[in-house]
Amino acid sequence: MQPLKAGIILQLEAIGVEMNTQQQKEDTNNLISKFEEREKVLVEEQAKTRDSIQKLNLIKIKMVQLEWYKKYCKNKEIGYYDCYKNQLWRRDREVTRLKKFLTNYRKNLVESVERKPQKEGAFIRATWLYAGRNYRRMVEPLDIAEYYRENGNRDYQTHGRSRHYILLEQWQEEEDANKLTSSPNNKKKEDVAGVLTEDSCFWAKVEDALISCKLLNDGTSNAVEKQSAKENLDMFEQYSMDQINKYAVSPEIFLKESSFMRWWKMYREIIEASHDSGLCDFMKNERYLQYEKRSAFYETL
Q: What distances in angstroms separate CA 204 from CA 108, 168, 195, 298, one per listed residue?
């Protein structure tokens, strides 16, 4: 007799369950079978919980490794987005495996939440949405880097973005809609040095702005293409200043070798000397040098 079944029989006998007649034996066996099934389900759930905890701990370790990579790139004055896009060092290629592991985990998690009933999905979302947001802000720029590494690619948000990023952002917006919004507070300003750029598609917008600059400089571009490029640059300029004012971008975008700074150099040559805007004033007067130095930055505002 199996230990589990023997234990159940002993417990039933202890509470006075009789098994004298054939009918009592059949009823008892049915009851034992139900207990066995429940016990097996419980054991399986406990095993899944242990596996989930172990995997979650591994995910945390992988995210910390990505943070280390981010700091390493910052010390190179280029930033982790451009480091990964340009594949300058062996470490950049190693990050590909790291990104794949993290992405597979999040994709599976998103698919799992989609399959669950709405109430259960909402409960789960409340417990891991914060981690999902950090993942999206940290990892999606790497996918964007891969997308624009291929010459000719543009408009990542329409043609290249993975569905799981879209859902994570959508769920985050639903969560944020239930909270009061306010202007940036002092706490956020104090933390600007370590902030992750809030818009995980920021670098896609930078890349498309670079493409627009090239179109304006290209003598073969027709009038329609140039007008579209100009409108895109106007929108990107306003968008960038809005993000800066909200302290929603990482100071890394201002590193001298970043794609954003490369865009600014190209854009500055395109715009007229009389062009006046918040971003132009911010960049021309090099106020971005104080962006990470909170107190000095405030004095210029």
A: 25, 17, 19, 29
